[in-house]
């Protein structure tokens, strides 16, 4: 894994040579700094301006792919012409695509009942936030006292195991978040594969930027499809990404460089 800027000459050449660019980015911890509570996360103004500049280029497709619900991520970024993928790609909406994973849709009632049970079982833990995102749910524990996280995990597992071994749901882990998802064999990698196929261009050059475990499936997939991936958060052996940067502000710097070497049109103001 190399620092993005250490490999920049080579990357810039690849970008200049690409007929069509598919830029895929996570939101929290990637475009936007991680906030204490998910509802407090916001897109920095400069990042928004750069994304808008990239989105209006006919040879660039911009996708924001997040664990948040589709309606949430759409409203939070709020830039027209971008493709939005919510719930880790279980629901996607954009100029060339409108998609909801049909099996996941069938699991909504199960997710809802697990949400009710978890809300009750965890209500007494201060700082806990159980979020119903429709197709999936999240238990955020960033504000929970460290000493209570063990208890929280035990209660969480109790509810999950109590739902029975029918294999309809699965649990994933992210940064200070536990997630319950439908067990439908879908992840950010599968969603990225679909997005590459549906972007309306033959063999687009894909790049994926992300900061968390759930982004790793996306990293692997773009590599398989001839592109590259960028991990946000510094040098690590835990990520399979090609390159790393330190923080969301460095992601903004990358977007700026991308726009300056491949931008051909100015945004309409
Ligand atoms: Mg993230």
List keywords for this structure.
single chain, 269 residues, alpha/beta, Rossmann fold, Alpha-Beta Plaits, four-stranded antiparallel beta sheet, 13 strands, binds magnesium ion
What does this structure look like?
The protein is of the alpha/beta class and 269 residues long. Helices cover 36% and strands 22% of the residues. The chain has nine helices and 13 strands. The strands form two sheets. The protein has a nine-stranded mixed beta sheet with strand order 1-13-12-11-2-3-4-5-6, sandwiched between helices. The protein has a four-stranded antiparallel beta sheet with strand order 7-8-10-9, covered by helices on one side. Strand 5 and strand 6 form a beta hairpin. The chain is globular. It starts with a strand and ends in a 7-residue tail after the last helix. The model has no long low-confidence stretch (mean pLDDT 94). Magnesium ion (MG) binds next to loops.
At a glance:
The chain is α/β, with parallel strands linked by helices and 269 residues long.
CATH architecture of the largest domain: 3-Layer(aba) Sandwich
Which fold name corresponds to the CATH topology of the largest domain? Rossmann fold
**Biggest sheet, spatial arrangement of strands:** 1-13-12-11-2-3-4-5-6
Instruction: Estimate nothing, just give the exact number of structural domains.
Output: 2
How does the SSE layout of this entry go?
Elements: E1 2-3, H1 8-17, E2 21-25, H2 45-55, E3 60-65, H3 70-77, E4 83-86, E5 91-94, E6 97-100, H4 102-106, H5 108-122, E7 129-132, E8 137-140, H6 149-162, E9 169-174, E10 177-182, H7 188-198, E11 205-210, H8 216-224, E12 228-232, E13 243-245, H9 248-262
Parallel strand pairs: 1-13, 2-3, 2-11, 3-4, 11-12, 12-13
Antiparallel strand pairs: 4-5, 5-6, 7-8, 8-10, 9-10
Helix pairs in contact: 2-9, 5-6, 7-8
Bound molecules: magnesium ion.
């Amino acid at each position: 894994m190399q620092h993005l800027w250490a490999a920049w000459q080579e990357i810039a050449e690849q970008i200049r040579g690409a007929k069509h660019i598919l830029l895929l980015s996570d939101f929290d911890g990637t475009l936007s700094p991680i906030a204490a509570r998910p509802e407090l996360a916001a897109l920095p103004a400069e990042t928004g301006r750069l994304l808008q500049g990239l989105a209006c280029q006919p040879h660039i497709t911009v996708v924001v792919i997040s664990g948040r619900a589709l309606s949430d991520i759409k409203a939070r970024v709020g830039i027209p012409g971008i493709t939005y993928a919510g719930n880790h790609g279980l629901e996607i909406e954009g100029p060339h695509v409108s998609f909801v994973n049909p099996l996941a849709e069938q699991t909504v009632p199960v997710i809802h009942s697990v949400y009710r049970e978890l809300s009750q079982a965890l209500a007494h833990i201060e700082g806990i936030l159980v979020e119903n995102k429709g197709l999936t749910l999240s238990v955020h524990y960033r504000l929970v006292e460290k000493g209570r996280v063990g208890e929280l995990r035990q209660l969480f597992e109790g509810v999950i195991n109590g739902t029975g071994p029918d294999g309809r749901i699965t649990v994933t882990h992210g940064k200070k978040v536990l997630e319950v998802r439908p067990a439908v064999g879908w992840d950010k990698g599968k969603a990225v594969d679909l997005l590459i196929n549906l972007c309306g261009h033959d063999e687009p050059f894909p790049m994926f930027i992300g900061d968390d475990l759930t982004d790793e499936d996306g990293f692997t997939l773009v590599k398989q499809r001839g592109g590259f991936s960028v991990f946000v958060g510094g040098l690590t052996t835990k990520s399979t990404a090609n390159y790393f940067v330190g923080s969301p502000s460095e992601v903004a710097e990358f977007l700026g460089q991308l726009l300056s070497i491949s931008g051909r049109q100015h945004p309409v103001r």
